[in-house]
Amino acid sequence: MREGNGRVAGGGNRQEYPECRCAVADGWECGRNVCIEKHENRFADMEKGYGGLQNAFGGALFQGMGWGRNEACHLSEKQYIFSDMERPKTTERIRERIAAAQEGALFVMGNFADIAGKNTANRVVLRLVAEGVLRLIVRGVYQKPRYNAFLGEFEEPAADAVARALARKNGWTVCPDGDTALNLLGLSEQVPAAWVYSSDGPYKVYACGAGNIRFRHTANRMLRNLSPETALVVQALRALGRERVDAPVLAKIARRFDAASLARMERETRNVPDWIHGALAGLAEDKGHA
Q1: Are 237 and 279 in contact, with CB atoms under 8 Å apart?
Q2: Which residues pair with 154 in a beta bridge?
Q3: Residue-level pLDDT at 286
Q4: Rounded to 5, what percent of the chain is helix, strand, coil?
Q5: How many domains does the chain have?
Q6: What pLDDT, on the 0 to 100 scale, is given for residue 211?
Q7: 178 φψ region: left (φ > 0), alpha (ψ -120 to 50), beta (else)
Q8: Is the full-model pTM beyond 0.85?
Q9: Are both 212 and 229 inside the same structural domain?
């Protein structure tokens, strides 16, 4: 190991250099000017999270973290903290995005992907939860609080909104199923005890309010190329069954959607069971002539 403007060699050892007080490891040249330049050139990678740092430093791992011109620079495999100068910038950008949203809006880490890496955004969000800026709804889903002065409590988000936030968080394609589809479409007033969704992800159950949200894995190719509105209607009609899809049911669907939406449903459902496509084609024709 050489001191001064040299390179640390071998075994991940670390040396404190008085010129810049920087702890260095394999592959790092130290000396105040060289070290600071490396810090500044790699800050973009630091904001991307641990993965970016590991690539930037050639796999060298540091213990701790907290850097600046007169501070030691360390990195932990599981935790790192930005300098006091840069950290508020990320926090304020996330805070501003939340402030711009409507009360009751739901957030997942993906909503902040353009601001910070997942780990950094997660730490900021946890601080904002502690401050009351956000509320934890289920793991990984947060709400900008909406307070109901009449009830004297915070309003809970709709189960369907939570289900769709979970789908965004996990990258799943989901569609309401059975009684859930009927309720959302207004064809049933019964509130499901369990909100059930077909999903291309794994089977999962999440507690939500007084009930739960269930995602059931399905390989149903029929739903893959349908828009959310069309998939909802198809699932509701399937839940009712051909015998129960009568004129009052079709009239409720017709009142809910405009002519353009019904025409799109007719085009999208040409590969679904004939009786469903026929019903929607009739609605689209009638609405188009109205």
Answers
A1: yes
A2: 147
A3: 87
A4: 45, 15, 40
A5: 4
A6: 87
A7: left
A8: no
A9: no
Which tokens is 259 given?
């002519």
Same domain for 228 and 205?
Answer: no
The 3-state DSSP class for residue 154 equals strand
Please identify, among 122, 153, 184, the residue that sits at the C-terminal boundary of a domain. Answer: 153
Domain that holds residue 132: 87-153
Strand partners, 23: 16
Same domain, 13 and 27: yes
Region of 10 please: left (phi>0), alpha (psi -120 to 50) or beta: left
Which residue ranges in the chain fall short of pLDDT 70? 1-88, 289-290
119 shares a domain with 99: yes
3-state secondary structure of 118: helix
- pLDDT tens, 82-120? 444 456 689 999 999 999 999 999 999 999 999 999 999
Structure tokens at 178: 């059975």
> 109 and 72 in one domain?
no
Q: How far apart are CA 135 and CA 218, in angstroms?
A: 31
